[in-house]
Specification:
Elements lengths: L8 E10 L4 E10 L9 E6 L4 H4 L1 H10 L6 E6 L5 H4 L15 H19 L7 E7 L1 H12 L6 E5 L17 H4 L1 H8 L7 E9 L12 H16 L6 E10 L2 H16 L2
Parallel strand pairs: 3-4, 3-5, 5-6, 6-7, 7-8
Antiparallel strand pairs: 1-2, 2-4
């Protein structure tokens, strides 16, 4: 990408028909201009793709390309459906209210329908690397899918992830952080997946709850504990990046601040 024209990020929209979800899924494709052979690109799937125009991802990518800060990457923003709280989550287990009961269907959509669609659309047999990112509940979904499909993915990006996702109501007297948080347990009981890298972001103003009264909000505790579980599993500091923003909130504006950090972490030059 040498000319100003070739540094631009182009966008197009498509609808992917899904048998697993029984609906059409809107996907926005953010493709660097001037790229003729996509197999040399990274592929980044992003949950809650409806938030990407709000955060200005197209201009963000154009600016990063213009400054030569990241290698070209094809981003695919996946618009959430009406059943977001059922489709996003942890595929192996719904939460205590039954949310995430269709997360397995969503995982199968990603692996069996969306990725093949992208490969066919761009007439390629593969990409340099595959990553999956998301915000809030979409971040939990992305982490779960990457963790359980290391043969496909090499990176996960989690922005203000719903890492509190639990199998028991926290108001239940028997609730225990170490036993009842689903994603932490999945990592703890799982196996080390060689080659995976993780980017996690949380803000100190993400919420106000502090269920264990330790002076740290739950969102930060839950994210830090994911980092701890990954390190215990064998991942090294260079494999796990944690961005904690003092003024970070649970909103698109915060994720817009964190997104360039993530992009440079994953595809920086």
């Amino acid at each position: 990408m040498n000319t100003v024209e070739e540094r631009r990020c182009l966008t197009e929209r498509a609808t992917v028909l899904s048998t697993h979800l029984k609906r059409g899924v809107t996907a926005d494709f953010y493709l660097p201009a001037g790229v003729e052979e996509v197999s040399g690109l990274g592929l980044l799937l992003i949950n809650d793709g409806q938030d990407l125009p709000v955060m200005g991802l197209q201009q963000m990518l154009t600016d990063l390309y213009t400054r030569g800060e990241i290698a070209p990457v094809l981003c695919v923003g996946i618009t959430a459906g009406a059943d977001r709280k059922r489709e996003y989550g942890v595929a192996a287990e719904a939460d205590y209210l039954g949310r995430g009961d269709r997360a397995e269907n969503y995982s199968r959509f990603i692996i069996e329908e969306l990725i093949p669609y992208v490969l066919d659309k761009y007439k390629t047999t593969g990409f340099r690397d595959l990553a999956f990112a998301g915000f809030s509940l979409g971040g939990l979904s992305a982490l779960d899918i990457v963790w359980n499909h290391p043969q496909w993915f090499s990176k996960a990006g989690v922005f203000s992830g719903s890492l509190w996702w639990r199998s028991r109501d926290q108001d239940d007297a028997a609730y225990d952080d170490d036993r009842d948080r689903i994603m932490q347990q999945q990592i703890r009981k799982g196996h080390y997946r060689p080659g995976l890298k993780f980017f996690l972001q949380c803000g100190l103003m993400d919420e106000a709850h502090d269920r264990n009264n330790n002076g740290v909000i739950d969102a930060v505790d839950d994210t830090r504990d994911i980092v701890k579980e990954l390190m215990k599993k064998g991942y090294q500091p260079e494999d796990v990046s944690y961005l904690e923003l003092d003024d970070g909130k649970h909103d698109v504006a915060t994720w817009a601040k964190a997104m360039p950090v993530f992009l440079k972490w994953g595809w920086g030059r």
